[in-house]
């Protein structure tokens, strides 16, 4: 590959990140309507953009989730500038920012070999599923609004599914505009939770975590009940959870494109057996 043309790298402002998410929309990734502030707050110093003159040409997010874990997403090069080394430039900036961390990503399979050359190993595959809302339905008596329950119980439950605690992120994720965050409360304990967010096209559900397939099904139906029957709903399902794949298909969701979860460094332990949908491909 030729040396990258003269460019400068700088950390993204919120305005720059909004542009990066517009690029993600163009790529068909369908980000959330309010992802700019949510993603920026995770790690304000972890979003990078390459510029040639006054033109932005490439972007990436390398987000620190706590001390020892990071995640790469929003890795995009403007089409007319691809193959010029600019992607490698932002890639290296993100990895430098995440130095000392175990690093994860959700990449398209055709890029898996490229990520492997940077030391990433395949952990599992995910599958995007898409369906339709259910329209209004009566609520299940065990389903509660997450914002109205003790936050510590949610933070402790979420820790089973993420390599590092993320309380600040959860506080904003469950309260985002045009979003819905529901929990399953049984015998005074949180036994599952899920979040739906409004996206450019339809809605996405993630994360969706539950102690049993029945609880996951109840939460999925409740989250879909807040969406019109002609509106689309998407979720990214980890393929090792066969119950999650069966649930999506039982609810009429159709499988779409795959992604590959990869890690550089020791694979973190997360409870995939109880994880029915990932939070978001851009942030892990």
Write structural notes for this entry.
- Keywords: Transferase.
- InterPro entries: Acyl/Acetyltrans_Enzymes (IPR052729), Acyl_CoA_acyltransferase (IPR016181), GNAT_dom (IPR000182), YitH/HolE_GNAT (IPR041496).
- The chain has 284 residues and is α+β, with helices and mostly antiparallel strands.
- The chain contains 8 helices and 13 strands.
- The protein has helices spanning 14-26, 35-42, 86-97, 112-117, 151-158, 167-173, 213-225, 242-250, and strands at residues 8-11, 47-52, 55-64, 69-77, 102-107, 121-132, 143-145, 180-186, 189-198, 203-210, 232-238, 254-264, 275-277.
- Strands 1, 2, 3, 4, 5, 6, 7, 8, 9, 10, 11, 12 and 13 form a 13-stranded mixed beta sheet that branches.
- The longest helix has 13 residues, at 14-26.
- The mean pLDDT is 96.
What does the average pLDDT come to? Answer: 96
CATH class of the largest domain, anyone? Alpha Beta
Taking the alpha carbons of the first and last residues, their distance comes to 30 Å
Radius of gyration: 19 Å
Q: Extract low-pLDDT stretches.
A: none
List the defining traits of the structure above.
284 residues, globular, 2 domains, YitH/HolE_GNAT, 34% strand, alpha+beta, GCN5-related N-acetyltransferase, 13-stranded mixed sheet, 8 helices, single chain, Aminopeptidase, GNAT_dom
Provide a concise account of the structure shown.
Residues 7-141 form the N-acetyltransferase domain. Keywords: Transferase. The chain is 27% helix and 34% strand.
Draw up the topology in text.
Blueprint: E1 8-11, H1 14-26, H2 35-42, E2 47-52, E3 55-64, E4 69-77, H3 86-97, E5 102-107, H4 112-117, E6 121-132, E7 143-145, H5 151-158, H6 167-173, E8 180-186, E9 189-198, E10 203-210, H7 213-225, E11 232-238, H8 242-250, E12 254-264, E13 275-277
Parallel strand pairs: 4-5, 10-11
Antiparallel strand pairs: 1-2, 2-3, 3-4, 5-12, 6-11, 6-12, 7-8, 8-9, 9-10, 10-13
Helix pairs in contact: 1-2
């Amino acid at each position: 590959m030729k040396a990258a043309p003269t460019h400068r790298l700088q950390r993204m402002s919120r305005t720059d990140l909004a542009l990066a998410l517009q690029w993600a929309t163009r790529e068909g990734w369908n980000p959330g309507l309010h992802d700019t502030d949510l993603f920026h707050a995770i790690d304000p110093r972890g979003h990078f953009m390459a510029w040639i003159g006054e033109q932005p040409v490439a972007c990436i997010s390398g987000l620190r989730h706590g001390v020892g874990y990071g995640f790469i997403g929003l890795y995009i090069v403007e089409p007319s500038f691809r193959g010029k080394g600019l992607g490698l430039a932002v890639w290296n900036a993100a990895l430098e920012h995440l130095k000392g961390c175990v690093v994860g990503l959700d990449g398209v399979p055709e890029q898996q070999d490229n990520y492997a050359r940077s030391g990433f190993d395949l952990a599992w595959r995910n599958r995007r599923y898409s369906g339709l809302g259910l329209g209004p339905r009566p609520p299940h008596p065990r389903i509660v609004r997450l914002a109205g329950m003790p936050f510590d119980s949610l933070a402790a439950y979420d820790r089973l599914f993420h390599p590092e605690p993320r309380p600040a992120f959860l506080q904003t994720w469950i309260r985002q505009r045009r979003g819905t965050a529901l929990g399953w409360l049984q015998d005074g304990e949180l036994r599952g939770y899920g979040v739906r967010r409004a996206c450019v096209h339809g809605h996405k559900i993630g994360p969706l975590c539950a102690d049993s397939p029945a609880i996951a099904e109840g939460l999925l139906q409740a989250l879909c009940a807040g969406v019109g029957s002609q509106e689309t709903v998407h979720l990214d399902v980890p393929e090792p959870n066969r119950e999650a794949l069966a649930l999506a298909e039982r609810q009429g969701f159709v499988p779409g494109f795959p992604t590959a979860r990869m890690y550089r460094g020791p694979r973190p332990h997360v409870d995939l057996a109880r994880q029915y949908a990932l939070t978001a491909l851009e942030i892990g």
